[in-house]
Amino acid sequence: MKNDRSSLIETPGKKLKEPISNTNLLLTITICTFFAMYLLAILIWGGGFKNPQQFLDLFNNNAFLLVLACGLNIVMITGGIDISGGGITALVTMTCVVYLSDRGGTVLGSLFLALGIGIAFGLVHGILIAYLEIQPFIVTLAGMFFAKGMVTIVSIAPRTADHQAFLALKQLRVTIPGIGYYGKTGNFIPAQIEPGAIVAIVIVIAVAVMMRWTRFGRNLYAIGGNKDSALMLGINVKRTKFYSYLLAGLLSGVAGYVYLLHTGAGDAANATGAEMQAIASNIIGGTLLTGGVGNVVGTLFGMLSLKTITNIVIASGLSKPYWQSITTGLMLCFFILLQSVILALREKDGFKLRLPEWLGLKGKNKKDSD
Amino acid sequence: MAKGWKKLMKSQLVIPLFALCLVIVFNLIRDLSFFTITVTINNLGNTVLKGNIISILNGASAVAILAIGMTLVTSATGGQDISVGATAAIAGSVFVSVLRANEITMLTIFTAFLASCLVAILCGIFNGTLVAVFKIQPMIATLILFSAGRSIAYWINGGATPTVSSPLLDSIGGFIPGIPIPTPIIIMVAFLVLISLVLRFTNLGLYTQVVGINERPAHLNGINAAWIKLLSFMVLGVCVAIAGCITVARIGLINHETILLDVEMDVILAVAIGGTALSGGKFSLFGSVIGAYIIQALTVTLYAMKVPSSAVKAYKALVIIAIVVVSSPVVQKYTTNLRNKLFKKREEISDSPVEAS
């Protein structure tokens, strides 16, 4: 404490430097790790990693995951959890395909249907969690069960969309001028990005702006940091929590539509395990499950890191399917331990006991009780 | 009598018991023959009991055993282990690979079980260390094994789905000759009694609850919170090994992709329905076991109603929501207020001295 004060007094001319917050520190680590990993991949394996299309495919293939992770990020910052995302995604794809193919629906109608399903789930989750104070894990688990069961009630067999206008929308690609790669015959192929990926990036930016500069966003952080203080500051905790789950539900609906735009098929097995990947993206991105710490930009880089490591595993010739999940697990383990150690070092002077006494840190811990 | 009733109403068991009764009454109204138990002779020549109740008790035994361990973990750490299904796949793979390397006798089965127990406990220690020492949220810490566990099982099996068959294994997964009750039920009851006795005659149960309710006072009172948390994960490891081995013995093969798939969700649900707060603290082992039976009874009822197996989840979700809404603190407070308004205050006055003493 003494040191801090003297260092502040020493430099009266300069602007006082605020210590970096936990959110920004974890965010910096994630971004640095991602760039280091990608540079290393380019240097060692070259080839595909130099191809801008492969980088853009990270977005094209995982746009729905990014949208899901954004919704989850909002909920996780308030200290909650939403594991229904994957189920809602599958339900939206199936319902929209059946609506488009069998009921002769329009593209706009299917979009509203997707958003409606998402909002309906978010509404029920929000009411049950915020106003009836039921544990979010159980409520969203039930939501996931319900969504996954409903998919098979809508249609047991996997379906493919054959609606003309929708297929036209699905085939739509945005070409990025100036960026591209040379094919085998030496012709220049410009890099393409799917509309779903653009939607995902727009959502990331929108959520980032909302969390940083709107009152609602700041309230979310306040609730996640300390619910009781937030209440005393006059924040309507219940309503804010309700809106956070509503937003997460809405974004799950959007994620379902983005998934449909990418694959064009409805299947009960769609987006299996996506909720866990979304949670992993958030953790790698520096969002803590305890709430109050996190940033949606970190989530973006967390998702990219998660998928880049899979690409690296494939590029390095470990073709057995189990290597991908084992490396994913190792990477999660690395990030979780890193975050834990960093936060422990930062809070060394705090009251929290980070390490038990048998690890030989008795002297440091004794300070706490003083 | 009235006092006993009041005590019962306040206990954690009232909601799960009520829910179980509801499922039973529903089945009685729907179809009286649902509960008939018949004595038949199975294809191995044993006289066995057969019926929906037996299949509920038998089918829920793996979930019930896991729920016992999960209750302790939930109580001590305030979080849940989502890697139980993946760890069970690892334990089952070890069990099968040891059995396939040797001739199957009672001794090798015991050795194989010990080996799988050891591996499952090691997984538990891994999770427990992350939670207790590094102070990571249990759900996040166990996400590592959740995503990697089934791949490790794949690696142990070499990508195949090896089978084992022996009359001895059949007697573990099915029936012991001469005893008409399925063996998994007996194992489950024996394990529940063992754990209850351990908790009854040691301080472990008390310490677990104290650590779960507030860690700091527990530490100041000389309880090693990290050790208690680690221990709860190790107990869960034993539960995982038992559940994995029973399942392998029952179906006679190990498929790392499908063995006990999504079981973690059912187990956590069983704990929540059983009245243990998922945020830790007070726990009820019997509640969790009843929770497991409620889930299985629900599934069997839905199957009996000719609901397709893939759609069962949707109906299950509705029942779960109904149960958690009824047991939520806000709704309970509201109903208590309503009851006090409807009935005379006299009851309250006569009760208050009892409360004070």
Query: Which H/E pattern describes the elements of chain A?
Result: HHHHHHEHEEHHHHEHHHH
Radius of gyration of chain A: 23 Å
For this structure, the CATH topology of chain A is: ABC transporter involved in vitamin B12 uptake, BtuC
Distance between the termini of chain B: 17 Å
What is the CATH level 1 assignment of chain A?
Mainly Alpha
Strand content of chain B: under 5%
Helix content of chain B: over 70%
**Helical proportion of chain A, percent range:** 55-70%
Q: Biggest protein-protein interface?
A: A-B, 53 and 54 residues
Q: The biggest beta sheet of chain A, please?
A: 2 strands, antiparallel
Estimate the global geometry of chain B from the Cα principal axes.
globular
Short description:
The complex is a heterodimer of chains A (370) and B (357). Chain A has 370 residues and is mainly alpha-helical.
